[in-house]
Specification:
Chain lengths: 436, 436
Amino acid sequence: MTTLSNNPLAVAAKSLPHKKTTNVAILGFGTVGRSVAKILCERLAEGLQLTHIYNRGIARKKVDWIPNSVRWTENIDDILSSDADVVVELVGGLQPAGDWIRRALASGKSVVTANKQLISYSGPELIALAQREKRHIAFGASVAGGIPVISGLQEGLAGDRLSKIYGILNGTCNYILSQIENRGIPFSEALAEAQTLGYAEADASDDVDDHDARAKLTILTRIGLRSNVAPDQIACGTIRIIGAVDFEYARQLGCTIRQVSWAELEGDHLYAAVRPALVKLSSPLARVEGGQNSVMATGKFGGETVFAGHGAGGNPTAVAVVSDILAIAGMGRDAAGIVAEAQQLSPSVSADFTTRHYLRFTITDRPGIIAALATILSKCGINIDSVLQKPGYSKSSLPFVITLEACKASLVEKALEQIAHLDFLVQPTISLPLLD
Amino acid sequence: MTTLSNNPLAVAAKSLPHKKTTNVAILGFGTVGRSVAKILCERLAEGLQLTHIYNRGIARKKVDWIPNSVRWTENIDDILSSDADVVVELVGGLQPAGDWIRRALASGKSVVTANKQLISYSGPELIALAQREKRHIAFGASVAGGIPVISGLQEGLAGDRLSKIYGILNGTCNYILSQIENRGIPFSEALAEAQTLGYAEADASDDVDDHDARAKLTILTRIGLRSNVAPDQIACGTIRIIGAVDFEYARQLGCTIRQVSWAELEGDHLYAAVRPALVKLSSPLARVEGGQNSVMATGKFGGETVFAGHGAGGNPTAVAVVSDILAIAGMGRDAAGIVAEAQQLSPSVSADFTTRHYLRFTITDRPGIIAALATILSKCGINIDSVLQKPGYSKSSLPFVITLEACKASLVEKALEQIAHLDFLVQPTISLPLLD
């Protein structure tokens, strides 16, 4: 590999009055950091120059394909006082990443980050800081890895008025659910396998309890629906409750089950949630396979636009990072900034969607059960759509399903609170939205 | 509707030293022009102001929902000498649209256009002119209407090295093919219906002979594969040759037929073509329905990314136009420009893809036909994959199909030239790529 110091373009650029080379420092030399460095080292002629790499324990991190001109350091101050124009934060987590980004912006550097947790919690504050400092902060890699959905919503669809964003934002959940579906294994076994294969972390709660997808949905909602929400405002429903039996019933309904992230603006109210849901087999959500991600955006003028691709992994995420660096490098100092200064709404937020529902009861069989359930549902003003019961289960732990006509989720919750007191239930009832 | 003169933000902006309002002139008040005007008039607070509309015969074009402050004119010089910052060209065609754009750029205005023919032929020249004039030209609406694929390739995937772009770029062809497939009607009948319904022009050759899709593929290839091609370098194959019988055989092969646009860079050679092809029913191409468009981009690092949505229509196209205006409005005067100045390749171009092939012969039946065909194919070094013959056709005009193992398209053409001399053929042979 040619080293940067041998690159005539880079040398020539330095002597120009208008600086043409953008110096890049990487914080965190893990999977994504290595991929970013690889891409930067392969693209010498385009005005980006990797100058610094920060990591703890650099002795065990150093690799020979990084040019000698790149400075390795274990001291963050070396980066902050350097001539780097763009600092790429790939450390993750809220701290110290947040402070480092704040200090980088205050030192006159622009920032590119893949840190979804930080941006979901502190994005607006960091954007405001960047604007005060007349620098840029970009976070295209924080949602859906290599799929350019943030730039798509922010720029490509800027001319529309988006009302709805939904999709599949966590590949680990999608993988686990497809294992339960295809092999009829319990959740715990599918999770353990995913952990063995490295698809899920040892502590998988971020993935399966939806906090990862929630952070991403928070960011997409801010960008696409111009609604300033905090992650804690968005309801989460874990996929731990899903069993193989739910896929059997779903199939009978022409559906499968996916972890669906959904945000929809209606006037000044935002409906938002991340939870498992039944989706029609013919829907684009059902077609998302394995670790793929997919985001659908619906606009007043343009209708529905689909973005799909590899949502995770070192290389796809690195593509998003490098695209952000290139965007910043191409911007003038007086550019309005990557983040459009669109007016932000502050809607009220709930998960009280109006949808059809799937209720899976597990009961000790005896006469009068449907009558008891139907009475409560009817008193709550909820109409039953269908009752499904597959044969072959024990009478003492019998799963059966009632689907409901479209109604508010809060109505269903109210009914389920009353139903919970019925003595024939042997397990808590599973309630999932059934999306059309 | 509030008129612009009542908008305090717009008035305040004019008195600021840094101009915050971007004045917009629309050339051409047809379907897209009306949609653009509608969106602009609904978005008062965001710094865009519709100031001029040019059209011939404005008396019959005027509508009452356009604010009185907007000036209507039939004289292009009124626009060119006005204080418009951005001229939106929606007239279409190569001339006079091309000259008007050149004059607008030379008058210090930026340009947004939806004109795929003009950009496919003159894009590089117009971009160079815009750069010399330190203005911007943006053409996101020229390909796939409301789907933000140009900004996606140009910015969102800028960090990748794309090698392949393919998709379905003409909704009219997709509609006609699906009518032939679903109802077994001939091409001519499907086309006539599409014309009656307004889905196809009276002169439909632009759509069905692939020149529309070719213009779009030319633009995507320049942007995504950084390859400077001219539209005439890209081979076209009409869909006029497709009959209901081809869909029957395709179904037997687990396929359907789509008009596929495909460009693939291999070293310094570009394989590119727009033509009907057999695609697997499970592929994303097969799932594109009606007037939808879909673009797939494959990169070295990010793998495959899918963009899909409404490829045509006034409103989706207008979204792309307004997004481009907003991007220009947000850019500083010293910004590098919407079109990345990435190094352009000048590859050699051919349609000599290596694929499987579907050959449909129409013959007068007699002994020895397969032997005659197999001999020629074998002499050309082509292997037969399967021979299919559906029952129920007349012996004197019998369609049957041979599929070939993957080989260069030029080899198949050579074989078909020899085959054309065989006296049992009663129609020209149909040759389609069969994409895996």
